[in-house]
Structure formats: C-alpha cells, structure tokens
Amino acid sequence: MENISIFGVNIDNITLEEATDIVEDFLVQDELKTICTPNTEIVMVAKDDKDLKSIINKSDLVIPDGIGLIYGSRIRKKPLKERVTGFDLSIKLLEIANEKGYRLFLLGGKEKVAKKAGMNILEKYPNVKLVGYHHGYFKGSHIGYKDHEEELNLINSINEAKPDIIFVGLGFPKQEIWIAKNKNRLDGKVIIGNGGTMDILSGDSKRAPEFFQKLGLEWLYRLIKEPSRIKRQMVLPKFMLYILFSKDVIQ
C-alpha cells in the first residue's frame, strides 16, 4: 500500500472504497488491527512530537482525514487520492458489521453518550451486535495512569465482551495514546480512534451540512458554530505556509 509522508507522518494513499476493502480484510484476521485518522491539525502536532509520530506510523491503516492534507499533497505534486474521514470509515464499519453480524464495543464520550450512540446504531443497523459501551472518563494510559484499576477493569470488560470492532472516541491525542499502549492486551479485530464520531452517532453533535463536506469546509462550519476554536484552526494557514515555502515536507 502506497503512502505519502507529510512531515514524516505516513498517510496511506487510498480512497474510501479501498479503505473499506482493507478493513473488511482486517475483520477476518486473527489479530487486532489499528486505524488512525489524522487530520491536518494532528499532523502538525506530530511533526514536533516524535512519540506521537511513531504511534501514527505504527498503525495498520492511516487515513487522510483532513482537507489540508489533500490540498498540500497536490501542491507538492504528491497527490493523495481523496479525503477519507474517520466518520465515513466508521459508518462503513457499521455497514459491514450490520451485514456480517459483527460485535461492537463503544468507548468514549461523556456519561451516557456511548449508550445513546449504541441505541441509535441499533435502530439503523439492527444486525450489529452491540456488546458493550463505556464513557471516556476513566483513569488510564492516555492521561498518565497506566495500569490503573479503572483501566484494567475496562480492558477486562472489553475482552469479556469479545468485540470484533472497537470504537475509541477519547479525542486526539488521548485515543491514539490509549490504543497504542493497550492494543497488545485487547481482544478484537479492528480498533479505530474516531474522535467525535460517538457524539454525532449519539445525536449530541451534528456533522457539517453536505455543502460544507463537499467543499472540504467542515472546519469552517465548526468554527462558525464554535468561535472559540479559532486558536486551533490557525494551524491550517500555518500548515499551508510550510507546504508552500519549505522543501521536502511531503515525500
């Protein structure tokens, strides 16, 4: 599988259809496969954080979940095929699970968010086997409490549920850290850090309208809805300046 290196972060150069085929293959294997969903902001953080960069690069599938990554790669003549969002790939996983009867565990979000997301999933995908859910407020590796009793109890609960698919919505970079620290002691076939997907599935948040999605302007929609995000969004023009004026940032 070809990948494009952006600031040393290896992004798989695939379409959503190709990513779907890959995860279908993961689901018939005997080991847990990890999926990372970096957007432009995440890549910019990983640029200066070797540990986070290593976590991303060791993932089994790294999808380009950021329109800035697409535009930047095109400017540097190393084009990524298309944007593949964590939300869209998560929906594909639910469709596969509904067709094949796979088992799903939901981890993340505020109290009751994972449960609400699970109930909504079952309404739309009745053949999915929801085997468990847990909120994201526990002491664990992602916040410096490796092997805390709460983390160990959670891992035992997940393994006892025997999921095929695990959604982890702890937000960046907590979800990436938690998955990396615990993947070797988790049972399952596919684990994906999918950020706010749980909030959208629960109904607590809404995805940007299709108009914004098609233009790759979901970041603008979120900024309009949450002006406090302006500091985080400033990473986008900074990223483009690096692309335009620095050599060898994309290989």
Plain-language structure description:
With 251 residues, the chain is an alpha/beta fold. Helix content is 47%, strand content 14%. α1 crosses α5 (86-100) and α4 (67-75) runs parallel beside α13. The model has no long low-confidence stretch (mean pLDDT 92).
Structural topology:
Layout: E1 3-6, E2 9-12, H1 16-26, E3 33-36, H2 40-47, H3 50-57, E4 61-62, H4 67-75, H5 86-100, E5 103-108, H6 113-124, E6 129-134, H7 149-161, E7 165-169, H8 174-182, E8 190-193, H9 197-202, H10 210-214, H11 218-225, H12 230-233, H13 235-245
Parallel strand pairs: 3-4, 3-8, 5-6, 5-7, 7-8
Antiparallel strand pairs: 1-2
Helix pairs in contact: 1-5, 2-3, 4-13
Mean pLDDT over the residues: 92
- Which structural category do the helix and sheet elements fall into? alpha/beta
Report Rg.
18 Å
DSSP helix fraction: 40-55%
What string, H for helix and E for strand, traces the elements in order? EEHEHHEHHEHEHEHEHHHHH
Oligomerization category of the chains in this entry: single chain
Low-confidence stretches: none
Summed up, the helix count is: 13
Count every beta strand, where a strand is a DSSP E run of 2 or more residues.
8
Distance, first to last CA: 15 Å
What is the global morphology?
globular
How do the strands line up in the largest sheet? 4-3-8-7-5-6
Largest sheet: 6 strands, parallel
Beta percentage is 5-15%
